[in-house]
Amino acid sequence: MERILLKPGITIRGRWYGGEYRVIKLIGSGGTARVYLVRDLSDGRKYALKLGSDMAGVEREYKVLSSLSSIDYVPRVYVRDDCTIEGRKRFFFIMDYLEGENLKKLCSTRRIPQGTTVEAAAITAVICLFLNHRGLYYCDIKPENLVFDKTTGNLYLVDFGGVVGAGQPVTQFTPAYDRAGWGSGQRVADESYQIFAILMMLVDLLLDGIPEVGRDLEALKQRVNKTRLSKGLKKVIIKGLDVENHSLKGLVSDLRRVLRMADGVGEGLNQCSTDVLINAGLAASVAFFIMVLVFIL
What is the pTM of this model? Predict the structure, then answer.
């Protein structure tokens, strides 16, 4: 479906609730929707506005996010409305604006310690586990969808447009992290699909990109095995990419065990500096999610 690119300064007016939002800039794009930073003209506050042409898709994502309003690691949504832009009907919802950077950008612009990256992968696995227990399988796992908010210090999962139920076909995915594309299983929502994506994301970030091996999983595992990552971390990655019935709970335990090992995760763990807020946010996230694990498992 066609997407319209809005210029800064344009005002979007809600048809049903009358809200007026002035566009500041484009902050995200994907599928049939775009996300803009906007200012609410009624109170002057900044929000993120997700605008799309697919009414059912926008409505569905809004309902999913609304059902998760009590969770601190998911953006809060406020209003779902529609509007007319250039004579065409468009649909949108308003949600919190996360003033921060996604994991991909952080790792490409700063010297993020490998331990921090591994910790973020573990937290991602626990977020998925928490959502799975609510019947919501988030499968488009990628560093661009993990955002560190400067205000709260929390790690947030964003873009819930592709969330599906257990066993349903995965409709939104990143090719490099998709197990079906690697010939390692079906493109259906389950824990092993999520584990594969999380570990591929980890490989991508730790090795500064997934090596071009022609979607040859064995060649990729051999490449991982030859790196300077610790033996423990290499074992976790290779095992997770191999074993189809590996559990998210097991992955979290394995990654936490790696982080407790004396040799860390490999060369560079203690040689880099990173933003104090990120580490504080990760520590708070870990504490919260340990409680989640105890409660739901």
Answer: 0.86
